[in-house]
Amino acid sequence: MNQRHALNLFNFSKNYYSNVATKTLKDFMPSTIGDIPTSPSVTYIQDIISPLQRKVYIETYGCQMNVNDTEIVLSILQKFNYVRTVKTDDADVALLMTCAIRDQAENRVWERLHSLKHQKPQMKIAVLGCMAERLKSQLLEKKKLVDVVCGPDAYRDLPRLLEDMDLYGKQGMNVMLSLEETYADVKPVRFDEKSPKAFVSIMRGCDNMCSYCIVPFTRGRERSRDMESIIDEFGFLVDKGVKEITLLGQNVNSYRDVSNDSEENINGETQLSKGFSTIYKPKVGGRRFHHLLDQVSLKYPNVRFRFTSPHPKDFPDDLLYLIKERNNICKMLHIPAQSGSSKMLEKMRRGYTRESYLELVDKIKAIIPDVALSSDFISGFCGETNQDHLDTISLMETVKYDMAYMFAYSLREKTHAHRNYVDDVPEQVKKERLNQVISTFKNIIREKTKKFIGTEQLVLIEGDSRKSNEYFSGHSDQNYSAVIKKNQDTKNVKVGDFVQCKVVDTSEKTLICDFINLSSITEFNRTT
Ligand code: 5AD
Ligand code: SF4
What we know:
Bound molecules: 5'-deoxyadenosine, iron/sulfur cluster
Structural class: alpha/beta
Distance between the termini: 65 Å
Helix content: 25-40%
Low-confidence stretches: 1-48
CATH class of the largest domain: Alpha Beta
Number of strands: 21
Strand content: 15-25%
Largest sheet: 6 strands, parallel
Number of domains: 4
């Protein structure tokens, strides 16, 4: 295989080539050419890439999945001779991993694109992620700020797009969504290798089609990574000293591995929480989220497991009892309500009512008595009345959340709400309602945090407190931030240690603690 041949193939057809992940070089060759190796064609791009090392500057916007996607992109690029730089001065190319969930998120990226272009006009810019998927060629056309556009399922093609830009000065785009891509074989390059915490994507996409949400359009259909590749990655992380793993997915607890047809594979319809429904047909077969959690929590008893972001429909009893039973599955569950009004929930197509949501909350609290709960809320969705808003406030006061992520509704094109409803709550009213929602949460959390005074907590040490190096900082099982006063006995304490400590005071959302002793998940639960 010579280089000229590879180059010809490389220019053969861009569209065809965007399937590099699944095609091999053989697929592109006339049958008269003898036997050629069958490794994926991406390796051949590597062969023709100049030995020059190129420097890539990266910024990530949006959710934790975007952070993990950035680590996947970096892993792909490293194989193609790119190295990361933290300075734009050094960079040949800047990558922006973007978010499209709300208008505000996109505006920040537009501002940044302008400032990068102004600061260093010769630097090439690639827009990745959800904005790339949503805006596609608009990004390339608008003010010529962007050179490459690459959607969430096309990262394997990014080296080719960048190479085309370098060699031929061509703008490039690949925004094809996939039914299969999970990047299961790509080991992400962790940005903070010293952190005892890691994030692993176990599924991608979302089939729920909540009426306000752009995600199903930017991230495509739901698909899960095979369990073996996930467990493999966990093993790698644990060997590196990781003590807390967060499983990630747009609807993480809808995980369903259908890759393995062994007897273990559980048949039958996916069990939903009582009182919940979906707009898609019930999914059948596969190993479910609780099967995965069961395996990994048993295998690594001294590693903490969290997961985000779940949907309330996917909390079957098996999962709740597993969480109760395993000391290393954190007792902090995210159950995004979005609204406390059944009328709004129906318009949002959430698949539950206020009553069925509250029934689920009661059940969770009954099965896992010490559980902490968090939620997302949207203020000012289409047609929301003051009474609907008050229903949200009363839901918050009833459940008493430990954490909440609160947003004003932002109309997204393409969504069901955009096509069918009117965005009729004035911006000022949205803001006022959002402020009331935020202050309701603040009042709840102040009281809740105080209740920890006098309790003992297991905290994973993540570093020194930002405010004072006389304290360590970390998080409790229920994800409360905690600071621990250093003293004579903490001399050997280091990042990645679990420590048992006593809460002596609180400040808004932080637990202020005294050190008791070094510990582990198993030890702590034996002694307390
Ligand atoms: N406007 C405001 N908030 C939104 N979210 C999703 N779409 C929108 C939108 N169009 C919020 C939801 C979701 C979280 C990730 O973002 O609360 O759970
Ligand atoms: Fe968006 Fe709903 Fe899917 Fe969450 S579950 S990503 S809110 S469509």
